[in-house]
Each structure stands twice: as structure tokens, then as C-alpha cells.
User: Fold these one by one.
Assistant:
Number 1:
Amino acid sequence: MKRHSPASERNRDPILAQLRRWLADAKQVIEIASGTGQHAAWFARHLPHLSWQPTDTDAGALDSVAAWAAEAACPNLLPPIGLDVTRHPWPVTGADAVFCANMIHIAPWDAAIGLVEGAAALLPAGGLLILYGPFTIDGRHTAPSNQTFDLDLKARNPAWGVRDLEAVGQLAQTHGMDHLETVPMPANNLLVAWRKRP
């Protein structure tokens, strides 16, 4: 049941370094599309002041998250729950931050809209929406490998594809969130945070 992603092992420490800064005063995080569960287990272990709530739509992923959580045995890592970002209201209450890694490009644009709308409805003033993954900037890929990845995604499903950072930012702005910071990550990815306005 426990799935494994080499990419999750490679990027967890650079992401963690930024989460330590951004979430120093936070208490509860909702993770969207937790996937294998490796991030949830790692971040919960290294951010013990946070209550970490993993979620996913896929039953197999939820089983994998539960297996990683059982191995981690972190009291602040909550049992995973099923959550579809496009179905509102979300089955969670209260959070200081919403974290999502590598989801919006492997899903239709409606998922990005649902993610931002759901986060805006859930977060208090000052709460953070944090996204990790590949993005285009002004419609341009940041590396040839990202362009190749984008073509592969679209070949698998025309509704998928690397999203433009400006388009996601405009979506966040429309729903009451201002850009906080964009941090370059390994393998031509970005970690981006938006803060909900008062």
C-alpha cells in the first residue's frame, strides 16, 4: 500500500526550509493531493508545532498516506481524508495554510480554480496558500525539460499541462489573496505563496 516517489525525497528538504519560515506561527495545515504521503510524514515530523491534515481524491493514495503516517508515528499527523477540491465546501474546518505540491498541472484547470476557491473560503485573514511545482512565466517555460514535460502531460490528457504563474496569481488575486513570495526550487520547480487579505 505504501507508494514511493523519488521526487518527493529529492524536494522535501528545500520545501521544508521555506515552510519553516512561512509557517513558524501557524498551527494547522491542510495538504491537498498528498499523493504517496511522503511529504506529509516528513513535514509533520520536522514541523511538530503543526497539525498536518493530508488529503487526496484517490483511494490508493489515501492508503499510501496512511501507511507512511503509521510508520512516521507523529502525533501531529492526522489521518488522511478524501477531498475533491472542486466540491465545496471542503470536508475540513479551519487551517492557517493550504499546501499543494504537483497537482494543478496533472489535473484540469477546474482543479486549480477549485483549489484557490476552496483555500480562499477556508483560510482566515493572513492564511497562506502554498503551491509547489513547475510553472511557465509569461507563457514561457523555465527550462527545456519543463517544456518536454508539458508536452507529455498534454499528450496524456489535453486538459492537463504546466500552468502559467501569472494566471494562477490572477486567480488567487481575484479570490482575495496577494502574492507573498516565489522561491526557485531544484529541478526547475517553484514554491509560491499567497496570503489572504484581511
Number 2:
Amino acid sequence: MENNKIRVVIIDDEPITRMDLREIMEGEGYQVLGEAADGFDAIELCKEHLPDLVLMDICMPLLDGLSAAKVIYEERLADTIVLLTAYSEREYIDGAKECGISGYLVKPIDEKSLVPSIELAVARSREMNRLRKESEKVAKRLENRILIERAKGYLMTCNHMSEPEAYEHIRTISQKKSLSMRRVAEIILTKVGD
């Protein structure tokens, strides 16, 4: 994985920590897109840049890192979130698991372990995102197939068509009207609701 392709935002309420992290990240070839000091600014920064990686503290003013991470994860505003925090208590670790966190490092950060931890977290997140997208495609195809099957059933029952005739009817309309077969099926099925 080439570091210069990883785009990072740094979120910490301590300016010195942000400066140190920026120096480490840029020294390793990462592109630092911006910095923020609280969870609200973190969310806005992620909306603006859609970074590959968010390095974030937990305890910050206005909105804590776990709450911000949950929003960032749910709205898919970043690929990977790694928490850098002084807190190692179980409640924070459990909270991180529920918020889509990919990595959890306890301060003070050891520079030698920071980069490998980030590389692994980003690689894992990219693989999970790839699998999620594949799963969504499969689910969408299944949903399309179910709608088309329902429309075929409607045509077979109401128009007394055979299954191949019903399928061909939907396909022909799809081609003539430049609509997807799913859209044709949806339109046919609106008759059922009338």
C-alpha cells in the first residue's frame, strides 16, 4: 500500500498532538487534508474531504470522538477511523466496537507502531468496504429478480400468459422504452395496488 495515496484528517483537541501527528503522517508520505479540535468539526471536515483515514481522540469538547465516529461511520464519510486516546478502559473499547472503529491506539503513541497499525486498519477497512459493496450488489440483483418474478406472476395470472411469455413481455417493454426490467416490473406492479 502506498502511503501517499492515503488521505488523512486529524482530530484532537490538543494543538500540540495535532502538530505531532501531522508531522509523523506527512513524514511517512500521507496526505493530511485538515485538522479539527472537536467532534462536530470532525464530521464537517469528513463531509468536505471524504478521507481514507480519520485519526481521532475520544475525549474532546462539544462532541466526543465516539459520537463523532458513529456519525462518520454511519454516513460513510471516511473509509477508516482509528482512535488515538489516553483511555484504555473497557467501556471506551466496547464503545469503539459499536461505532465502526478500525483501530484503537493508547497514548502516548509509539511512532514505530503507529504506521503499521494504520496500514493494517486501512487495508482491513478497504477489504470490508469491497465486501460490503459486493454484498450490496448481490442484494440489489436479488431484489430486482424478486420484483421481476412478481410482475411475471401478475401477467401470468391477469393476462393468462405463460412464464416465458410474461418474461418476454417485460423484456420487450424494457428494450422499447429504454427502461430497466426492474422499472418495467415496478410499473406493472403498480396495477396491483390500484
